[in-house]
Amino acid sequence: MKIDRRVSTAHLIYEALRRRILDFTLVPGAPLSQKETAEEFGVSLSPVRDATLRLDGEGLVDIVPQSKTSVSLIDIQHARETHFLRLSLEIQVLRQLAHSVTDVQMAAMRNWVSHQKIDIKTRDISSFKIADNQFHYDYFGYANVAGLWRLIRDRRGHYDRIRGLYLNESSRREVVISEHETIIAALANRDPDAAETAVRTHLGKSLGIVAEIRAQFPDYFL
C-alpha cells in the first residue's frame, strides 16, 4: 500500500488498521504482526509501533511486550459505557437542533438517508456504515460541537463492532433508515421531545440484542 507522505505515516497506518478492525477484516483475537504491517506499508517499524500504541489506547488491540499484539475481543461493558456517553450527548445535540436547524442542514441529512437507500439496493454495507456515521457526525457539526464527536470516536471501537455485527442483516439496515427519517421529521417539526425519543429508540437497538449477537459470534467477545 502506497503511503501519502503529506500525511503522518503513523496516522495513515492507524486509520487503515482501525478500519480493518471495525469492518472485521481483522477479527477479534487475530494476531497483528508489526513486522508484516511495516513490510506491507513499506515503512520502518517506528510508525507501526506508534499506530499500534494508539489503537491500544482505544482498546482495539492488546499488546503483550516482547511477545505479541492481537486484535482485542469485544468488551460489552466498554460498549455500554460508550453508548451511555453517546446517547447523553446526542440527546442534547438534537434538542438544540430542533430549535436551530436550517433547511440546508435538513437537506444534507436527507441526502445521507438517500445515500443509505442506494447502499441497501447495491448491498454495499461498508458505504452504508460510512453514511450512517456521517449522518450523526454532521448534526454535531451543525450544533457547533464537532469536537465532542471526536471524543466519542476515540472510545467507540467496541460499540462500533457490535453495531457492525448488528447491521449485517439487511432488515436491520432498513430499520436504521426509518429511524433516521423519524429523527429528521422531529427536527422538521421543531419538536425536541420527539427528537429525543427518536434518538433513544435509534441508538438502543444493537445493545438491546447484544446477547443474541454474542451467541452468533461467541469467539469475538470477552
Structure write-up:
With 222 residues, the protein is mainly alpha-helical. Helices cover 71% and strands 4% of the residues. It contains 12 helices and 2 strands. The protein has helices at 9-22, 34-41, 45-57, 76-100, 103-122, 125-142, 146-153, 157-166, 170-188, 192-203, 205-208, 210-216, and strands at residues 61-64, 68-71. A two-stranded antiparallel ribbon has the order 1-2.
Give unreliable regions as ranges.
none
C-alpha Rg (nearest Å)? 19 Å
Largest sheet: 2 strands, antiparallel
Give the N-terminus to C-terminus distance in angstroms: 32 Å
Helix content: over 70%
Trace the largest sheet across and list its strands.
1-2
Structural class: mainly alpha
Average pLDDT over all residues: 92
Total count of helical runs of at least 4 residues = 12
Total strands: the figure is: 2
Q: What order do the SSEs take from the amino end to the carboxyl end, as H and E?
A: HHHEEHHHHHHHHH
Shape: globular
Q: Determine the strand fraction and express it as a percent band.
A: under 5%
